[in-house]
Amino acid sequence: MKNSWFKCVILPVAVMISAACSEKNEEKFVSVNTEKLVFNYLASSQAFKLLTNGEWSVSLTEGGDWLSLPVTSGVGKGSEKEILVQIYALGNDGLPRSGKLALHAAEKDIEIAIEQEGSGGIAFQTPTLTAFLQTGTAIEDIYLKIPYRKALGSESFSVSVTVAGAGAAGINDIDDFPVTIGSVSGNISVPLSGTPLTTGQVIFTIRSSYAGYTGQTLTAAVMADIPHFEGAILISGIMPDPRGTDAPATGASATFANPTMGGASVHAGPYEYIQFIALENIDFSITPYAVVICNNLVGSGAQENGWATGGSKTYKFNLTQGQVTTGEFFYVGGTAKSLNGYNTCGIVDISHAKWIRTIAYNNPGVTGDGFGAQTGGVMSNFTTANRSFSGIAVFKGINVTKNTVPVDAVFFGNKTDDGYNELNDWGYLIPKNDFYQPVNPDDQSEQRMFMKGTNTRFFYGPTGTDISDYAMLGGTLNSKKQWLLPRSLTSKVMTPCQEMSYSLLDIESGPGVTQFIH
Asked: What do you get for the CA distance between the two ends of the chain, in Å?
């Protein structure tokens, strides 16, 4: 019994000594998954991953007035157990700012840089009217809508509107309409009142007590009748700036460093696409159409052949196969068929959507259908500084010349430099739709091109870049294709890997989506 008891005791002691010696001899280590954290301007939190096998501690050496650490120390569990170290940042309504975090572990000091963008104040986007103005019809439930982004969600101010122009008679000015912002992005809706008395152009001059608002104008028209859309296909959405790049070096696949999200991304692309809605049943093998995208560099402007210029200026997709039914959304664009670009978490596959034509336009030697050179992107980003504007046009038939008039067209960007060459009368022909009129409503003069006469409307894009900002061009038509609500821009940010799940439903349903009541 004595011998048995002794063995039972001495064995655990030996094991404990061995473990202690092993722990003493184990080399201390520490590793983190990033050297920098970047916050947007909103109040939010992030975490970095820490691996260590001993005690650790963190402290803020800069930015302690707007950054905080809920947990500042602990003991690591080795390489098998990662630790998430959380950092909180307050909202920033001022200029960009930076901070620093010091990590001490394994007798080492590691510094992590922290940056936060400034909001720069509310970013106001292109104002629109929520319905058309008609002579002799009292204005009811018609609003001047001002989209906005980058708000803190708690601002209050007032908006005033002055009405002028040939069609202004009977429409009331607005003085100090109170506005309270309740979200970081959305729309300010200012109600109009009165009864328009004459047809013609109306200019709404918008002012605000908000300190960062520099004023905006909106040009609209009072019409004798509600306009009617004559085409069978309507442009209803655009993804011009998906997350990532459309131009891999090999044209097939490439790896791009991604320090913001961590790791690297492997992709083929291309990712840009356009959404359309069918207003009639169409068999494209019987009734073909074409989609043309123009992409204008500042200084090069519109050319003699307009939509048919080709080269780096315009790119054509022929729609010659497939069928769509009335009210159905369909897509034209890059071969990736991804909802919102790529990232380390992969892509959101929407290949199950109705794709009528895709082209791998980023592959060397791959040109458009009839014209258009290989390109890293068929559309300009909304905010690219050296870009003028992009335009999208739909044509019935695939033979597009400088004299072919589209059935629908929209333009977007942040500048309209050289959109129309007045000296030579060169430009992009426009259809009659909810944006453009080939005949000036004021003096009945010809204005068949973009940026000629009153045809100046384009969508001024959101301020973010490379964040998969999808542009919904939502409007409403009745069964007679009359415009109950003209199209207006609603931006939907769908950045990958942001702990949110997105699907095709995000761009085919809900607020901001085009509706055809048939």
From this structure: 95
Dump pLDDT digits (tens) for 435-480.
Answer: 999 998 778 899 999 999 989 888 876 555 667 789 999 888 988 8
For 167-201, how does the pLDDT look when each residue is reduced to its tens digit (9 = 90+)?
999 999 999 999 999 888 888 999 999 999 998 88
User: Is the pLDDT assigned to residue 355 strictly greater than 60?
Assistant: yes
- Using DSSP, state whether 472 is helix, strand or coil: strand
Longest CA pairwise span in the chain (Å): 117
Beta bridge partners of 218: 204
- With 50 as the cut, is the pLDDT of residue 21 above it? no
Q: How many alpha carbons fall within 13 Å on the CB side of residue 89?
A: 27
Residues near 68 by Cβ (< 8 Å), separated by ≥ 6? Answer: 60, 87, 88
Distance CA 144, CA 167 (A): 16
Q: Hunting for tokens 């629109």 — which residue is that?
A: 128
Which pair of tokens denotes residue 156? 């209050």
Instruction: Annotate 239-273 with three-state secondary structure.
Output: ECCCECCCCCCCCCCEEEECCCCCCEEEECCCCCE
Instruction: Count other Cβ atoms within 10 Å, centred on residue 426.
Output: 18
- The DSSP code sequence of 378-442 is SS--TT-TTEEEEEEEEEESS---TTPPPSEEEEEES--TTSSBTTTTB--B--SSSS--SB-TT
Q: What one-letter code names the amino acid at 15?
A: V
Residue 494 CA to residue 239 CA, distance in Å, equals 10
Q: Indicate the DSSP class of residue 94.
A: S
* 412-443: pLDDT as tens digits: 887 777 788 888 999 999 999 999 999 987 78
CATH number for domain 30-116, candidates 1.10.10.10, 2.60.40.10, 3.90.1150.10, 3.30.360.10: 2.60.40.10
Query: Of all helices (H) and strands (E), which one includes residue 237?
Result: strand 233-239
Confidence of residue 2 (pLDDT cuts 50, 70, 90): very low
Q: With a cut of 60, say whether residue 15 has pLDDT above it.
A: no
**Does residue 262 carry a pLDDT above 50?**
no
Q: Please state the pTM of the whole predicted model.
A: 0.65
Query: For residue 215, what are the contacts with CB-CB under 8 A and spacing of at least 6?
Result: 205, 206, 207, 208
Domain boundaries, the chain: 30-116, 133-223, 229-518
d(CA 35, CA 49): 11
Residue position matching structure tokens 């014209």 = 371
Cα 249 off chain centre by: 25
CB atoms within 10 A of CB 254: 16
- Could you give the CA distance from residue 395 to residue 357 in angstroms, rounded to a whole number? 14
Please say if the pLDDT value at position 211 is more than 70.
Answer: yes
Does 133-223 carry CATH code 2.60.40? yes
H or E segment and range at residue 20: helix 2-25
